[in-house]
C-alpha cells in the first residue's frame, strides 16, 4: 500500500491550505507461468507478492514433484516459449530462504519461472516404458472389467438393441469347416479351421472360433463356462472376423523331420 500526500485549497477564501492523504493500492498478486522442462509441466498461476523463496519452493514441489533442495530456479522474460532461446534475467543463486523472491527478482506479470532438477532426472520417454497389455480375447475373459460389468447388466452398447445394430456381417465363406489363417496378436500368423462364427455371451458383436493346427491358442472352444466349439486345450481361440483370412490353406505339418 502506498500513501501519498497532496495539498488542497481551503473551501473558504483565505483559509490555510491543508494536506489531503491519498491511498494507492498495488495488486497483491502476480500472474506468472511455471515451466519444468525435465518433467514436462507448463502451467500458469497467480502468486502472492509477499512470497518468500522457501514458500515458493514448497509450492513448486506440489506442482512438479521436485523437492525444494533439488530445485534450481530461473526467471525468464515474459512470453518465453522456447527453452533453447531462453535467457534468464534472474536466478536463485545466493538467495536466502526468507528472501522476498518477487521483489528481489523484480518480477512482473507474464514472466516465466523455470524449475530444473539439480539431480538431472527427467521423465522417461513413453516408448521406453514397459507396458502391460492384454489382447482383446484376454480382456474379454476377465470378470473384473468394466466390459464384464456392462455385459452382465446389458447396459450401454451391450444392450441387445445396440449390439444387434453394431454387429458386422460375416463374409459368406467364413463358415465352420473353412480353412483359414489367423492373426492371433503375437505377430505370427497361425493356420487353423473355422469352427464357430456368430454372437457370443462374453462380448458383443460377431466372433469367429478357430481350431488351430498348433497348441498356441487360449482355450478349448469354451469361454467363461460357455462352449462354442470343441477342440483340445490350447488349440482353440476366439477372434474378430477382421483377424481371420479364409482360403485354400494347407494344414500345418508338425511331423517334418529335419
TrEMBL record:
GO MF, one example: microtubule plus-end binding
From the record, give the transmembrane residue ranges. none
Note the PROSITE patterns from the entry: CAP_GLY_1, CAP_GLY_2
Q: Does the keyword Cell membrane apply?
A: no
> What keywords is this UniProt entry annotated with?
Chaperone, Cytoplasm
Q: Which SMART domains match?
A: CAP_GLY
Compartments it resides in:
Cytoplasm
What SUPFAM superfamilies is this protein classified in? Cap-Gly domain, Ubiquitin-like
Q: Where is the CAP-Gly domain?
A: 198-240
Query: In which domain of life is the source organism classified?
Result: Eukaryota
- Cellular component GO terms, alphabetical: cell cortex; microtubule plus-end; nucleus
GO terms classed as biological process: cytoplasmic microtubule organization
Query: Does the UniProt entry include the keyword Chaperone?
Result: yes
The text of the family note is: Belongs to the TBCB family.
The protein here is known as Similar to S.cerevisiae protein NIP100 (Large subunit of the dynactin complex)
Q: What organism, scientifically named, is this protein from?
A: Malassezia sympodialis (strain ATCC 42132)
Amino acid at each position: 500500500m502506498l500513501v501519498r500526500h497532496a495539498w488542497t485549497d481551503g473551501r473558504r477564501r483565505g483559509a490555510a491550505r491543508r494536506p489531503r492523504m491519498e491511498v494507492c493500492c498495488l495488486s497483491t498478486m502476480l500472474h506468472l507461468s511455471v515451466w519444468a522442462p525435465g518433467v514436462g509441466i507448463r502451467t500458469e498461476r497467480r502468486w502472492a507478492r509477499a512470497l518468500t523463496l522457501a514458500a515458493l519452493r514448497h509450492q513448486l514441489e506440489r506442482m512438479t514433484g521436485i523437492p525444494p533442495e533439488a530445485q534450481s530456479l530461473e526467471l525468464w522474460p515474459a512470453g518465453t516459449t522456447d527453452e533453447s532461446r531462453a535467457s534468464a534475467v534472474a536466478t536463485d543463486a545466493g538467495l536466502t530462504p526468507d528472501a522476498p523472491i518477487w521483489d528481489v527478482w523484480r518480477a512482473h506479470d507474464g514472466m516465466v519461472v523455470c524449475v530444473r532438477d539439480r539431480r538431472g532426472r527427467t521423465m522417461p520417454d513413453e516408448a521406453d516404458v514397459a507396458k502391460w497389455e492384454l489382447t482383446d480375447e484376454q480382456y474379454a475373459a476377465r470378470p473384473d472389467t468394466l466390459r464384464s460389468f456392462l455385459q452382465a447388466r446389458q447396459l450401454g452398447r451391450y444392450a441387445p438393441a445396440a449390439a444387434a445394430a453394431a454387429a458386422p456381417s460375416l463374409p459368406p465363406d467364413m463358415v465352420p469347416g473353412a480353412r483359414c489363417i489367423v492373426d492371433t496378436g503375437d505377430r505370427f500368423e497361425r493356420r487353423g479351421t473355422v469352427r464357430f462364427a456368430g454372437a457370443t455371451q462374453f462380448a458383443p458383436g460377431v466372433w469367429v472360433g478357430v481350431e488351430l493346427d498348433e497348441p498356441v491358442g487360449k482355450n478349448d472352444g469354451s469361454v467363461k463356462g460357455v462352449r462354442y466349439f470343441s477342440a483340445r486345450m490350447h488349440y482353440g481361440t476366439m477372434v474378430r472376423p477382421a483377424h481371420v483370412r479364409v482360403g485354400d490353406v494347407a494344414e500345418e505339418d508338425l511331423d517334418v523331420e529335419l
